Amino acid sequence: MEALEAAAGEVSKDEIMKVFQAQRDAFHAELPVSFESRMDRINRTAKMILENQDALCEAVSNDFGHRSSVQTVMTDLMSVVGHAKDHKKNLKRWMRPEKRKMDFPLGLLGASGQVEFQPKGVVGVIAPWNFPINLAFDPAIGAFGAGNRVIIKFSEFCPETGELVKKLVADYFAPEEMAVITGGPETGKAFSEIPWDHLIFTGGGEIAKHVMAAAARNLTPVTLELGGKSPTIVGPDADIQKTTQRIAMGKMMNAGQICLAPDYLLVPQDKEDAVVAGIASNVAEQYPKLIANDDYTSVINGRHQERLQGLIDDAVLKGAKQTVVNPGNEDFSNTNSNKMPLTVLQNVNDDMRVMQEEIFGPVLPVKTYQNLDDVVDYVNDHDRPLGLYYFGETESDKRKVLDRTISGGVTMNDVIFHIAQHDLPFGGVGPSGMGAYTGQDGFKEFSHAKAVYRQPKINIAKIAGFLPPYGAGTEKTMKQQMKL
User: Fold this and answer.
1) Which entry of 177, 193, 225, 445 is annotated as an active-site residue?
2) CA 201 to chain centre
3) Contact 136, 34 (CB under 8 A)
4) Which one of 93, 195, 254, 267 has the fewest beta carbons within 10 angstroms of its own beta carbon?
5) Do residues 298 and 256 make contact, with C-beta atoms less than 8 angstroms apart?
């Protein structure tokens, strides 16, 4: 996702440090953080969302120029509430120490060991604009579950939502528990330079490099949720109607402004026309009209719309065939809206910007193939994607794609849905990110796994010959240990 410029009031590094230090001090004073305290903060987060649902939906829609309240509930608010419910059900179990086996013969002599999951401290969350509630508070709940305090840097591209969230968090939480920082690029830069105990960033890869470089100066552990070009593979035996219906739904959701949106299609050469026609037909069924359709989301702003149109123009100039899916034949040039119809691009190649950049909007390139081995090679020749999608029924084909490609996550016979499962980790690999959260994986991501070894009363070092002066006992132990 390309960085977008926006004017916003900036917050200095010193101001952020004051909030950080207050949280750090309160965190240390509270240790150990009880299950009850963790769940209280999680429940207040969910309660804040539930009690202010209408206001949050309205603010998000105003920031987008238009977004359906139904979609905001489904993609932003439900996720946060679901994450809270998942912690309510499982957190006590996750918090239990894990017993580990001791090397022979220490266990027999009374030694024991376990891993205790300890909170790290203060977690910084840099949230993006595309799902502003979900991607701010899902990580916050994960951090709370692990026993941490949280400070969120809210996106400047959702200023109304940011101001509302800032007020709500101040109403429901003490600043030593959770706080929200708003501001533009300078604030974001300062935020990434704070010596966090853990930092999670969701956004574009180029900005992530700066965030990671700033975090490295403090040796801050980071979770990066990025994006990239998630391929959608239509297998040789895929059901075209079901496949195109699900691709259309995933691509048109939030007008394609999703890090996990189907970025481009790989389809059998003899199925290309049927796939394109199927997508157009299913878009028309789901969105008979677009401009005045409450269900269809606007592109976030004019600059992003211009960028998307630039991708289309560049592809067409270089030989791509475009199909504009405009079911109501509406005049998009004669409106103040930033809404865009879906544009399907065929005959694409890697010289086109649309095949080089993450699209993040209603533009869908289609590439053809003759056999799945070519698909595997193509995917592996490019950056590791955040998501990968395969449609088809033959198990050997599914296994070929699963075993021979690497991606952050996979949904089979649909798109995006793996992120909605709280018990599956959500994260990227390589250029699409590092680390993962949600569910128990998130609990562990935001926790320090502390090894605790308990030595028995017997003098193990003396028995094993580790206590100087070294002698026959030492030699015997080394010979035993240096065998496979």
Assistant:
1) 225
2) 9
3) no
4) 93
5) no
Over residues 256-262, mean pLDDT: 95
Find the mean pLDDT for residues 409-419: 95
- Is 225 a catalytic site residue? yes
Side-chain half-sphere exposure of 425, counting CA atoms within 13 A: 20
Neighbours of 210 (CB within 10 A): 14
Rounded Cα–Cα distance for residues 46 and 38 (Å):
13
Predicted pLDDT at 4: 38
pLDDT in tens, 109-132: 888 999 999 999 999 999 999 999
Among 167, 131, 5, 7, CA closest to 57: 131
Closest C-alpha to 37, from 117, 115, 119, 114? 119
**How does residue 462 score in pLDDT terms, banded at 50, 70 and 90?**
confident
Q: Residue 431 in contact with residue 228, Cβ under 8 Å?
A: yes
Closest CA to 99 of 108, 111, 112: 112
Say if residue 300's pLDDT is above 90. yes
- For 111-174, the DSSP string reads -EEEEEEEE-SEEEEE--SSSTTHHHHHHHHHHHHTT-EEEEE--TT-HHHHHHHHHHHHHHS-
DSSP 277-309: HHHHHHHHHH-S-STT-TTSPPPS-HHHHHHHH
Collapsing DSSP states into helix, strand and coil, what is residue 364?
strand
Rounded Cα–Cα distance for residues 105 and 82 (Å): 46
* 187, 181 Cβ separation under 8 angstroms: yes
- Sort strands 264-268 and 198-202 into parallel, antiparallel or unpaired: unpaired
Q: Are 181 and 192 in contact (CB under 8 A)?
A: no
pTM score of the predicted model: 0.93
Q: Which one from 57, 177, 259, 358 is the annotated catalytic residue?
A: 259
Which 3-state string (H, E, C) describes 338-360? CCCCEEEEECCCCCCHHHCCCCC
CA distances, 79 to each of 72, 75, 138 (Å): 10, 6, 7
Strand order in the sheet with 149-153: 178-181, 149-153, 122-126, 198-202, 222-225, 433-434
Give me the amino acid identity at 100: R
Query: What dihedral do alpha carbons 9, 13, 16, 20 form, nearest 10°?
Result: 170
pLDDT above 90 (res 101): yes
**Six-digit token pair at 132?**
């502003």
Radius of gyration of the chain, Cα coordinates, nearest whole angstrom: 26
CA 49 vs. chain centroid, Å, equals 20
* Residue 51 known to be catalytic: no
Alpha helices in 176-239 (DSSP H): 185-192, 205-216
